[in-house]
Amino acid sequence: MTAPSKPLNVLFLCTHNSARSILAESLLNAMASDRFRGFSAGSSPRENQQPNPYALEVLKRAGVPVDGVRSKSWDEFAQPDSPHMDLIITVCDNAAGEVCPIWPGHPATAHWGYADPSELKGTPEEMLAAFTKTLLAIRQRLELFINLPASAIDNLSLQQSARDLAKR
Q: What are the TM regions of this chain, as residue ranges (predicted)?
């Protein structure tokens, strides 16, 4: 695939921006930062929300940098001076059903649902296993995404291509 002249900006949304969206943002940046820039946000992060420690741990174990990773509200990306998003992907069913802000530039949208590993109550080993399972599921879909042909990520095709990947 020929790299576009500038990376495409992809925003991953979840409710609290502590686990799945953090995993997706960090993975995309580690896998293809020359062609894509990953961001993440939550529709309603809790006050003083922080990334889930298990999410950060599985990213570190996978060799994915976590410097600067933080939880934030999607309002941060709906401002006129925010980075222009090319694609917005919801990664939890709650965020997919919410009324989103009006995004500058009207980016393409898709939903890639994943079970919430932070809902599991178990031993630290069980929690790490659940987060690792989610990380691997996200990685698998991102590998397909970053290897799409250039024609599948042009402005007209991006939304359909991203939505088609949700079926895999």
A: none
What predicted TM-score, i.e. pTM, was given to this entire model? Answer: 0.87
Based on its alpha-carbon atoms, the radius of gyration of the chain, rounded to whole angstroms, reads 15
3-state secondary structure of 96: helix
User: Which fold is adopted by the domain 8-158?
Assistant: Rossmann fold (3.40.50)
Output the CA–CA distances (angstroms, integers) from residue 33 to 6, 20, 91, 132, in the order listed.
Answer: 10, 19, 20, 22
pLDDT (tens digit, 9 = 90+) per residue, 44-82?
877 788 999 999 999 999 999 999 999 998 888 888 788
CA 8/CA 73 separation, integer angstroms: 21
The torsion angles phi and psi of 60, rounded to 5 degrees, stand at -60, -45
Rounded Cα–Cα distance for residues 141 and 139 (Å)? 6
